[in-house]
Write a structure and sequence with these properties.
single chain; 561 residues; alpha/beta; Immunoglobulin-like; six-stranded parallel beta sheet; 11 helices; 24% helix
């Protein structure tokens, strides 16, 4: 009887073992599947892989911790003993999980996150006497990955004497060697700036000596965009070059300048990308497009569909809806390019702005821009990134400067920075809160890059763009990040404190974390702890739907497990 009971116990124990998903030890392992399959990973980021074993009876088991993990190229990505991959450099590597004689693998593509990233500033560096953190420290802190530096590569600076073939690169070695690792450079190049330095023909953009100008362009691009970049002190070559800035047909010859500069750049750096000088103008969009058609389109007509790799247009305005006009400008310019024979090229916005304070009216403005709070500037900057990204713009650069101050005449561009410079033209009730004080927009920029950097920039979905409500879906690390806001200023009956209820459908999980994009203070000076500066809440997900109550601030929504 005892022998019989032992046999029965062994029999039932075997059945329990074979049918227990936690122990497949008595079955042969048939295959291993590594997930996620063929992911892309931004440089400097990590990716957790899972190894799932499938056995002879089709049962499965998580082998992530038990498997042996290897990377085919540790110079591209390393992999830990528990399947956590860390990107090291651009390229691809095969990630393999092995148990016994059975293996499974997938391909991991590592991309340069900074070159794919849309987050720029013009310029990203700070240079203010008396400021404790000059340089690129603030830009790196808030997640800026592109800089368009303020001193363009001008022929008259690099070759002061046309009779002397020697070039002086001292200024640009110093300027571009200071750009930190991981931050990309968009470099502008031209014979001269707005001031006549005698390097262009009268009334023209075209150089006085084409042969010498072309030699200058080749020398500059060869030094900074080719194999000599390290000797110049740069950590990476400059692969994006822009010809001049904001041309118009009131001066002759820009199309020819674009052509010869483009050809010179490509001759020494075939993989470099060449932008045309950005479309100038200010809202309203009707005036902007009329100016484009009259003064910029003729340049494109002469180019005949060639000599441009990337289109650029500039878009400024107020914080009460001017950002939306950028879509109409984009659509019109793209239509003109298509009709003119240009390929479907990328669009950048290398200058855009939102201000706080009260700029003095200037002739270049259509009207006297009113006072705007730090909160208005912050939420406007946020929208001026998210909205253009949603309709296809690839890179965006606020201007002018991370720190306030441009011409110091109290105009619009003296107030677009995110750090106060300690100067106030009014002198009575100053809107400037002191040199080095960060505005709310500084922290909003940081939160934006923190939550959106590494997204699939080619896969941004517009969920709603009606009834003054905007909802977008980003995908980051194979998971959605929703962005939503309410243009409350378009509501005729709006009063401070009013809210708007919205719903987002198709949300996975049981709850979601909602983070306001602007800190919960009236001014950035009150932010003492970035980690606790933003209002957050956890809301329930009911049947895949999240219901939110929006106030004046945009929100970012992430589903929780």
């Amino acid at each position: 009887m005892k022998v019989k009971m032992v046999i029965m116990a062994l029999f039932f124990g075997t059945l329990l073992t074979c049918n227990n998903g936690g122990d497949n030890s008595s079955l042969s392992l048939a295959s291993i599947t590594v997930t996620p399959a063929n992911p892309s990973l931004m440089l400097g980021k990590t990716q957790q892989f899972t190894a799932t074993g499938t056995y002879a009876d089709s049962s499965t088991k998580d082998l992530t911790s038990a498997a042996t993990w290897t990377s085919s190229d540790a110079a591209v990505a390393t992999i830990s003993s528990v399947g956590l991959a860390t990107s090291i450099s651009e390229g691809s590597a095969t990630v393999t999980a092995t148990s016994g004689r059975v293996s499974g693998s997938t391909t991991l593509a590592v991309q340069n996150s900074s070159s794919e990233s849309p987050f720029g500033f013009h310029p990203a560096s700070v240079a203010k006497q008396g400021y404790y953190n000059n340089g690129f420290g603030d830009a790196a802190n808030i997640g800026v990955t592109w800089t368009r530096d303020g001193v363009y590569a001008y022929w008259f600076l690099v070759q002061p004497d046309l009779a002397d073939p020697a070039y002086d690169f001292t200024q640009y070695d110093r300027q571009w060697s200071r750009v930190p690792v991981g931050m990309n450079i968009l470099a502008n190049i031209a014979p001269q700036g707005p001031i006549d330095e005698g390097r262009c023909l009268p009334g023209s953009y075209f150089p006085v000596d084409e042969q010498k100008y072309v030699a200058f362009v080749k020398a500059v691009v060869r030094r900074y965009g080719g194999d000599s970049y390290a000797a110049a002190g740069l950590d990476a070559p400059i692969k994006y070059w822009q010809v001049g800035n904001e041309p118009n047909s009131q001066k002759r010859g820009f199309a020819d300048l674009q052509r010869i500069t483009y050809m010179a750049i490509k001759a020494v750096c075939p993989d470099c990308m060449v932008l045309i000088g950005g479309v100038p103008g200010m809202p309203p969009v009707s005036d902007y497009l009329a100016n484009f058609d009259q003064h910029y389109k003729p340049i494109l007509d002469v180019l005949g569909g060639k000599y441009v790799d990337v289109m650029d247009f500039h878009w400024y305005g107020n914080a009460t809806g001017d950002y939306r006009g950028g879509k109409e400008a984009y659509d019109h310019i793209r239509s003109v390019l298509g009709a003119g024979g240009f390929h479907a090229m990328p669009f950048w916005i290398t200058e855009m702005g939102a201000y706080s304070g009260d700029p003095i009216s200037r002739d270049q403005m259509h009207f006297d821009y009113p006072f705007q709070s730090e909160q208005q500037q912050a939420l406007d900057y946020f929208k001026r990134f998210v909205y253009p990204l949603s309709f296809g713009v690839k890179k965006i650069f606020p201007a002018f400067g991370l720190m306030e101050g441009f011409k110091y005449d109290g105009g619009y561009f003296d107030f677009t920075g995110l750090i106060y410079d300690g100067w106030d033209p009014a002198g009575t009730t100053p809107s400037d809160l002191g040199l080095g004080v960060k505005k709310l927009g500084y922290y909003t920029y940081k939160k934006m890059t923190e939550m959106l950097e590494g997204s699939d920039w080619g896969n941004i979905q517009t969920i709603q763009e009606s009834e003054n409500v905007y909802i977008f879906k980003f995908t980051k690390n194979n998971a959605p990040v929703y962005v939503a806001w309410w243009d409350y200023f378009n509501e005729p009956s709006f009063a401070p404190g009013n809210t708007k209820t919205i719903s987002i459908t198709g949300v996975q999980g049981n709850s979601a974390l909602v983070t306001e994009a602007v800190p919960k203070f009236s001014a950035g000076k009150d932010v003492m702890d970035y980690a606790t500066a933003f209002n957050t809440q956890i809301v329930s997900v009911s049947n895949g739907t999240v219901t939110l109550t929006l106030n004046e601030n945009p929100v970012l929504v992430v589903a929780l497990e």
